[in-house]
């Protein structure tokens, strides 16, 4: 297709030359950033080593800019498109995180509001997956407001992905009793570990006989993003973020969990 678009090897060479010059400049800037902020080089040393490379790459990139009309417009257009998607996603996630902080109730305040008279407690155990520790999952608040009942045991489960290839079994789980039948559980796993949530949960919670594992239900929250009144200009960028957010795959694979014990609760988020 590129051959049909450019129609000549010279145009293809222009596109390649411009992209190569841009890649060299970006690589040099990234290497200088890593040397300064990761390797903790002194500013004078980093400037002494990388300044000649940056100067050379800038001259090469400026010269290659003359090839934009001949074919350099293609890598430039691809770069602008990708940058627009990244910036839109980052801005949209910042808005969503701000909205989530407003909507989420602290777990401590939620448990304090639980009284013996309300809500009614049903036999069994409910497990609500949470994105962070200390906050009430939206699936829990939604189900409570709708059904006005809770299970005798409620476990707030967070799945924490660590920056390590493997987490040893003794360090894989932390469990705390919060009182009134509430539990806080965190499962830690590395990026090469294959986590089976249901098996891991049963394996570690069987130490607590008061938790009913025979009547067990997992609740997973799912956010559905819709257009709202929040400032996100221009409008096409808001629609782009909504499409990206609603198309993203789940971070965890729930297919290995028993389907008869899995309930997904959706909630709309206006952006």
List keywords for this structure.
271 residues, alpha/beta, elongated
Short summary:
The chain has 271 residues and is of the alpha/beta class. The protein has helices at residues 2-6, 9-37, 43-64, 68-103, 107-112, 138-147, 197-205, 235-247, and strands spanning 120-130, 149-161, 173-179, 182-189, 216-226, 262-270.
Structure characterization notes:
There is one protein chain. The chain is 48% helix and 22% strand. With 271 residues, the chain is α/β, with parallel strands linked by helices. The chain has helices at 2-6, 9-37, 43-64, 68-103, 107-112, 138-147, 197-205, 235-247, and strands at residues 120-130, 149-161, 173-179, 182-189, 216-226, 262-270. The radius of gyration is 26 Å and the shape is elongated. It has a six-stranded mixed beta sheet with strand order 3-4-2-1-5-6, sandwiched between helices. It is built from eight helices and six strands, in the order αααααβαβββαβαβ. The longest helix has 36 residues, at 68-103. Helix 2 packs antiparallel against helix 3, helix 2 crosses helix 4 and helix 4 crosses helix 8 (235-247). The model has no long low-confidence stretch (mean pLDDT 85).
Topology:
Blueprint: H1 2-6, H2 9-37, H3 43-64, H4 68-103, H5 107-112, E1 120-130, H6 138-147, E2 149-161, E3 173-179, E4 182-189, H7 197-205, E5 216-226, H8 235-247, E6 262-270
Helix pairs in contact: 2-3, 2-4, 4-8
Percentage of residues assigned to helices: 40-55%
- Radius of gyration computed on alpha carbons: 26 Å
For the report, how would you describe the main beta sheet? 6 strands, mixed
The chain-level structural class is alpha/beta
Overall 3D shape: elongated
In what range is the share of β-strand residues? 15-25%
What distance lies between the first and last C-alpha atoms, to the nearest angstrom? 38 Å
Name the average pLDDT.
85
Q: Give the topology string: H per helix, E per strand.
A: HHHHHEHEEEHEHE
Low-confidence stretches: none
User: Strands across the major sheet, in which order?
Assistant: 3-4-2-1-5-6
Number of helices: 8
Annotation, overall tally of beta strands: 6
